[in-house]
Design a protein that fits this description.
113 residues, alpha+beta
């Protein structure tokens, strides 16, 4: 089992969801987050004065998957999120040692679905 965490541009969410649904990945959690990567934010001008906003609005997607879904989930996120421009985001794949479905008490791969 793996936990896939993706940080993406907010305007790419619908495309990412569309690509995930094509791969039959339906269980996702989406959160609004703030952060920046190498670009360290953006420069904006307000009343003629340059201001640097160092935290940008992004979306975080968390998806718990069984091992046989890892590659197709990652590829689907890339297809949906990629614009080819700086700031497209990152994907992190981490081991998920334990998962429990609260309603039934199922554990492991059965809890994920």
């Amino acid at each position: 089992m793996k936990l896939i965490t993706a940080i993406i541009q907010p305007h790419r969410l619908e495309e990412v969801k569309k690509e995930l649904y094509k791969e039959e990945v339906n269980l996702i959690t989406v959160s609004e987050v703030l952060g920046h990567g190498r670009q360290k934010g953006v420069d904006e001008f307000y009343r003629g004065v340059k201001e640097t906003g160092n935290l940008l609005r992004k979306l975080r997607i968390d998806i718990a998957v069984n091992d046989n879904f890892v590659d197709k989930t990652v590829k689907a996120i890339i297809r949906g999120a990629r614009t080819g421009k700086i700031g497209d985001g990152k994907i992190f794949v981490t081991d998920l040692p334990r998962c429990i479905r609260i309603r039934t008490g199922d554990e492991g791969p059965e809890a994920i679905g």
